[in-house]
Design a protein that fits this description.
The complex is a heterodimer of chains A (157) and B (617). With 157 residues, chain A is of the alpha+beta class. Chain A is built from 7 helices and 4 strands. Chain B has 25 helices and 19 strands. Chain B is globular, with a radius of gyration of 26 Å. Classes of the chains: A alpha+beta (157), B alpha/beta (617).
Chain lengths: 157, 617
């Protein structure tokens, strides 16, 4: 899926693995840090992790695909997360989701062609008291309504 | 900052810090919880710092950003110490006036005080507001007073004195006795006796043992552990250190979900400070006891809240649970004896050691001791965190503390225990809230999420929602859970879209029982609870969905038709503006009308109508 992309510079991966002393028990955190650095998990990084930790590539893949926060596909500059926790669900999650889909043309799990936004639905952001909640990047937006979506998204270029 | 080499040095250091605290010195505390932060709480705090500096009084008046105060519905919150005055919904532009009128002078700014809902009565003193007055705050007592990034704040109010006490020569067995006699049960959901768990882990013979703090609070609707980790991280570290000493472990892990970046940050700061002060590391305070803690971040899998799945995740594998024929206290993390407790459980330990097991056992109900923190959210006025003694009724929590259902709607039910729990109806409002009573009623304590629903919440849709959540989060290892929960969802989907038949109710119950009996771990075993409990208490809603193809709450779109009442519509145009599909027509002074060819029954018009003119047909 990433064949068209150039081979990324892997020095950062080596640095991350060294930070965890090359121990395979830190595999989940190593992949998180790689994603933080590269925006997603490019295939060559996974191969290098398997090699350096001396574990099968299949294990790296199984972990990378099991945990929902890890992504094998490149994501947008701003990740929109709409919370579908119970409180948010009761307070209008469906209408928020539909409005974001309308505004961005994305459905869950997709990224805009210009790489501006990725759109995810998440189980719970743990900010239930200000439901319904969405986050863009690290910013939380509480007490949302479908009407406010356009304004919020316009802040992220 | 000293590295404390002996127990006496810690005692002296604590006295020194305490002596430096002047309780009469004015201090502005600003809530730094996630709710208040989302409402620009940090800007309020920095505005205080800036203006106090400009006025040249920053040495006379302290500003402190604290952990979550729990009154999230009213944030950002500002409390003036020592006056005890609480200001709600504070904006950065209010700060100047607060300083001149209420900090430097003694006036109360009426408009910033809390107004009792439905009345004109305003209350300025924090302790007199029903939301606070009816709580019993023990675990949460510290969060509102301290800066969680300063170990000095924690030590000054008596922090690490329980750890000091046990290191001063209490036998590990004796500590376990205390915890056992206190009656403390695990706050993560299962409610297992904490002391018993510790004892069985202590008995296991092994050179290496682990203690783990489960901070993977995945239940949608619960954010209790988040607030403790963010607001009082040292209480968790102290609890773990005491537990490790009692069990005979030198290694600790805290597993925190990635969605809680502030909790991870504050815990990391706390661990580093504890190390620098010699409270974690080798030969702590000059004793033979060595203990250190590492943080492991979750990566977005609900099932990792299950103990064996969590351990697999720390080991760097897929988070799949295993059958517990052998307990984790014998064979857990890396195959070694492991004691896992939840965040809130650990945070209770220093209190029990400090005040004695008798004190703790004196709080709560017959078999559930101490307090429990609940996150009360959904269709309730005072959403937020409340800490109450076990055994208090649902009614006291929802009405007396949290102010009941807003917007003149009617209470329908309350969901406790997250996706593993159940929905309880109005007639259960006088039920005592403790481990046993909730389980008897078909729900469970869970980690403490409490979601209030009004008559615009559909119980069938709520059951469908939890079931859908669980199909996504099932790890797929055992067939009963992987396939069974999926089948439950298919049936519930049929019901909410008007395609179900009467026989589907029996089928649904049959599948539920199969999943309950045959799943490996707690996720699957409890997955049918939301469905079974709503079938028990709200069966008529299911029947209505199937027989009459009607959703009385107006939530299931395929079964809902909205209509604008001629009598009530004031032709204000709000619904026209908000309708996402432009299905409403009308002009000034002309009653608005819905075009049913375009309408998608989303209900936005009903939400925005100020005159209650939109209702289901």
């Amino acid at each position: 899926m990433n064949n068209i992309q150039e081979k990324p510079d892997l020095t950062e991966v080596e640095r991350i693995i060294a930070k965890y002393n090359g121990k395979d028990s830190w595999l989940v955190m190593i992949l998180q840090d790689i994603q933080e650095a590269y925006n997603y998990l490019p295939e060559p990084t996974l191969e290098l992790v398997a090699e350096k930790l001396n574990i099968p590539l299949s294990r790296v893949h199984s972990v990378a695909t099991f945990y929902s926060s890890l992504s094998l596909q490149e994501r947008g500059r701003h990740v929109i997360r709409v919370c579908d926790g119970t409180a948010c669900h009761l307070k209008g999650f469906v209408n928020l989701r539909d409005e974001i889909e309308r505004q961005t043309g994305l459905t869950e799990g997709q990224t805009t062609p210009d790489k501006r936004f990725s759109f995810e639905v998440v189980a719970c952001l743990g900010a239930c008291a200000i439901a319904p909640v969405m986050s863009v990047g690290n910013d939380y937006h509480g007490e949302m309504s479908a009407e406010k979506i356009k304004d919020v998204l316009s802040k992220y270029k | 900052m000293p590295k404390l080499g002996t127990i006496n040095e810690l005692t002296a250091y604590a006295q020194e810090l305490k002596a430096q605290c002047d309780p009469s010195k004015p201090c502005v505390t600003v809530c730094g919880g996630t709710g208040c932060r989302a409402n620009h709480g940090l800007e309020v705090a920095s505005m205080f710092e800036k203006l106090l500096k400009e006025k040249g009084v920053c040495d006379d008046i302290d500003v402190r950003t604290t952990g979550c105060h729990g009154f999230c519905a009213q944030g950002p919150l500002v409390v003036l110490v020592p006056k005890g005055v609480l200001y709600v919904s504070v904006k950065p532009t209010d700060v100047e006036e607060i300083i001149t009128s209420s900090v430097q002078a003694d006036e109360i700014i009426e408009r910033l005080t809390y107004r009792l809902p439905g009345t004109k009565k305003r209350i300025a003193k924090e302790e007199e507001i029903p939301f606070y007055a009816n709580q019993k705050r023990l675990v949460f007592a510290g969060s509102t007073k301290m800066d969680p990034t300063r170990i000095e704040d924690y030590i000054a109010v008596g922090g690490y004195s329980s750890f000091r006490k046990v290191l001063s020569g209490v036998e590990p067995e004796e500590i376990i006795d205390w915890v056992e006699k206190s009656g403390l049960r695990g706050r993560g959901g299962g409610g297992f006796q904490t002391g018993r768990k510790w004892r069985s882990c202590r008995k296991s013979q092994a050179a290496t043992k682990y203690v783990i703090c489960n901070g993977d609070e995945g239940d949608p609707g619960a954010f209790i552990d988040r607030s403790i980790m963010e607001g009082n991280p040292h209480s968790v570290l102290e609890g773990m250190a005491i537990g490790a000493y009692a069990i005979g472990s030198n290694h600790g892990y805290i597993y925190v979900r990635l969605e809680y970046p502030l909790a991870i940050e504050n815990l990391q700061i706390a661990i580093e400070q504890a190390r620098e002060h010699g409270l974690l590391g080798d030969n702590i305070l000059g004793t033979d006891f060595s203990f250190d803690i590492l943080i492991s971040r979750g990566a977005g899998a609900f099932v990792c809240g299950e103990s064996t799945a969590l351990m697999a995740s720390i080991e760097g594998f897929v988070g799949e649970p295993r059958a517990k024929h052998i307990h984790t206290t014998e064979k857990g993390l890396f195959g070694m004896p492991t004691n896992l407790n939840n965040v809130e459980t650990w945070a209770n330990i220093p209190l029990i050691i400090e005040k004695g097991w008798q004190w703790f056992a004196g709080i709560g109900s017959k078999n559930s001791k101490g307090t429990k923190v609940f996150s009360v959210v959904g269709k309730v006025r005072n959403t937020g965190l409340v800490e109450v003694p076990m055994g208090i009724t649902l009614r006291e929590i929802i009405y007396d503390i949290c102010g009941g259902v807003p917007d003149n709607r009617k209470f329908k039910g309350v969901q406790t225990g997250g996706p593993s729990g159940g929905c309880l109806p109005e007639e259960k409002l006088d039920l005592q809230v403790d481990f046993d009573c909730l389980t008897e009623a078909g729900s469970m304590m869970g980690s403490g999420g409490m979601i209030v629903m009004d008559d615009r919440s559909c119980m069938v849709e709520v059951a469908r929602y939890f079931t859908e959540f669980l199909t996504r989060e099932s790890c797929g290892k055992c067939t009963a859970c992987r396939e069974g929960v999926m089948q439950m969802l298919e049936i519930l989907d049929r019901m909410t879209t008007g395609k179900a038949e009467m026989s589907d109710i029996d089928l649904l119950e049959e599948v539920c029982l199969y999943v309950k009996e045959n799943s490996i771990c707690g996720l699957g075993k409890s997955a049918p609870n939301p469905t079974l409990s709503s079938l028990k208490y709200f069966r008529d809603e299911y029947l209505e969905h199937i027989e009459h193809k009607r959703c009385r709450a107006g939530i299931c779109r395929d079964l809902t038709t909205f209509i604008i009442s001629d009598d009530k519509c004031k032709a204000c145009g709000k619904c026209i503006k908000s309708c996402p599909v432009e299905a409403i027509t009308g002009q000034k002074k002309v009653t608005h009308v819905i075009d049913y060819d375009a309408c998608i029954s989303c209900g936005v018009c009903r939400e925005v109508c100020p005159f209650d003119a939109v209702d289901t047909k």
